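INFO  loader      accepted 1 record
INFO  loader      residues=190
INFO  predictor   begin
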Amino acid sequence: MNTIITAIERFTPEILRSGTDEEKQQQLMNWSHGESNSIYVRWVPDEMLPNYAGNDTVPRNFFGMFGEIARMDFVPKLNALGMRYGHMAFIHYHYFFESTAELQQIVQVHPVPVDFTWYNCMNKPYEISCCVNTRPVAKVEFNPSQLTDMIQNLNMRLTTELKEKDAIIFKLQMDIQRIDAVVNELQARM
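INFO  predictor   done
INFO  writer      dumping tokens
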């Protein structure tokens, strides 16, 4: 006879993705009662993103209803052409508030996301879909030499991209000059 273990253990997302029904139920309990767990938000409206100064009061106030926030990761969503069409978010918590009905909703309907309504400052409603983050990424600390290497790599990549863009702009400018010359020649003939 299979029974669900009631002791709270560390959340193991791999079991939640591929375990038996009983193991999945145990993992959902571990997730909702554990520490350092997170939720996945499929789409976040631009009004909810931290501003350019890094002020994250708006998302922190909304997502704070689930628990004590450790960090928030906002990631651009890209379509097949690589164009951005919004952001998704991963909200990591030190711990959840166990008594929240919203958290229990997420557990009860997993793997279906739960929609919560958020109103912006103009009282426009948005549906924010939240679910268990089954692929959490731990916060990583880097030493100074690793940061230096990463910055140099980013600088090199950015320089290369800018040179490529400059070449495209130069080619477009040359094309425009040729088109202008053709237009001027046609106008002179008239």
